[in-house]
Design goal:
about 170 residues, mainly alpha, Arc Repressor Mutant, subunit A, Tetracycline Repressor, domain 2, 2 domains, about 60% helix, elongated
């Protein structure tokens, strides 16, 4: 459980909600939905989470770090949506799986516009510093490329597809 210091006694006390990181991410998402990503502030997220303005800095050194945490949550959810779509694709046809993944991605983006906005923006987040973002993004990209390469090997796509072999 997270701890805060009581100003009167100087003793540690637990935060009332138990998980400050999740509370700050949820507060940030609410701010984005109400006022847009450009209007997010760590101070406002702290206020909505019911903690002091300095409390978030134990977990996030900047607004960019907080927004990156929102993007990581989004990437986890997107990855889950892609995996579900792939699992629901019937048979071994790589083009059917490719199409199912594309539909899963679009369904997720339409159902989660705030998360999609954050995950798609390289100006709001520090994509390169996040192992979660880089690894999961690469895994989805590799999956899609592998499916297209399988389709090419099965004769479903022309063998002269230069755009596939450039990866």
């Amino acid at each position: 459980m997270e701890k805060a210091q009581d100003k009167k006694t100087g003793r540690d006390r637990p935060y009332h909600h138990g998980n400050l990181v999740d509370e700050l991410v949820a507060a940030t998402i609410a701010i984005i939905e109400e006022r847009g990503a450009e209007n997010v502030s760590v101070r406002e997220a702290a206020k909505r989470a019911g903690v002091s303005p300095g409390a978030p800095f134990r977990h996030f050194r900047s607004k960019t770090a907080l927004m990156t945490a929102v993007a990581e949550q989004a990437m986890n959810r997107l990855t889950e949506s892609v995996e579900i779509a792939r699992a629901q694709a019937r048979g071994e046809d790589p083009l059917v799986a490719f199409e199912a993944i594309g539909h899963g991605y679009l369904r997720w983006a339409l159902a989660n516009p705030t998360h999609f906005e954050v995950i798609s923006s390289r100006t709001l987040i520090d994509f390169n510093s996040s192992d979660i973002l880089r690894e999961q993004n690469d895994a989805i990209r590799r999956l899609m490329i592998n499916l297209l390469m399988q389709a090419r090997e099965n004769g479903q796509l022309p063998t002269a597809s230069i755009w596939i072999s450039s990866y």
